[in-house]
Write a structure and sequence with these properties.
about 0% strand, 2 domains, mainly alpha, 3 helices, about 80 residues
């Protein structure tokens, strides 16, 4: 139930990321854009270095997220 409420908070009607829900939003994510024109899978026009820096950003964010979750599990003793 909690996960559903969180998803609705971000992707539900009139929520911040609703434009991304149910669409191939590869280009929008690569450009970090919510512009409806960017909600397509075509990334050909995006420079390679931009895609690489975005990949690095996502990997870093994910690593920090995982470390934070592990730290929280240690705090509660799991």
């Amino acid at each position: 139930m909690c996960v559903l409420m969180i998803m609705l908070a971000f992707y539900g009607r009139k929520a911040a990321y609703n434009a991304l829900a149910g669409k191939d939003c590869t280009r929008a994510v690569a450009k970090m854009s919510l512009d409806p024109a960017d909600l397509v899978s075509d990334v050909v026009c995006i420079p390679h270095f931009s895609l690489c820096s975005l990949l690095f950003l996502w990997e870093t964010h994910h690593a920090i997220f995982v470390l934070h979750k592990l730290h929280m599990l240690q705090i509660v003793g799991l």
